[in-house]
Design a protein that fits this description.
The chain is mainly α. It contains 8 helices and no strands.
Length: 151
């Protein structure tokens, strides 16, 4: 199986095991995301929102950001079509998947300490820069790693 297929398979498993049902629409989103060099804010919000149960499985990237803001989540102040950084993606993960976080994140919640939390869990590599852009396949790998409890 190719690397992209493994990422997609892990993300689909996460949706199914995580309580959501992978509809054809959410599977289409994962397929579209898997080949992108730069994941967009709306796509990240839709993926994590679906996995976390905050959004329905048919959520659209174009409206996911506004939907999540409406229910109280803090999202990047960017347009849904703008690229997302590793830090912003990590911050969304900690919030939307309601992951327990350490003391520094509790005091200073945001992208920088969200990255540190995911590095500590073995989800992200040490030395990753919070401001780096994130590919779609890397985002799916991160979600897959989380579905296995971090490694």
């Amino acid at each position: 199986m190719q690397a992209g297929g493994r990422f997609l398979g892990s993300a689909l498993l996460l949706l199914i095991v995580g309580g959501g049902v992978a509809t054809s629409q959410s599977a289409d989103l994962m397929m579209a995301v898997s080949g992108q060099d730069s994941l967009r804010v709306g796509e990240a919000a839709a993926l994590i929102g679906i996995v976390g149960g905050s959004l329905p499985s048919q959520a659209e990237p174009a409206t996911a950001v506004d939907e999540l803001r409406r229910i109280g989540y803090v999202l990047p102040q960017k347009q849904p079509a703008a690229p997302i950084t590793v830090g912003e993606f990590s911050f969304l993960i900690i919030q939307l998947l309601d992951l327990p976080a350490g003391m520094l994140y509790s005091i200073f919640p945001g992208p920088r300490y969200a990255v540190r939390e995911l590095v500590a869990r073995g989800v992200l590599a040490a030395g990753v820069h919070p401001g780096a852009t994130l590919s779609g396949s890397e985002a799916l790998r991160i979600l897959g790693t989380l579905s296995r409890g971090g490694e």
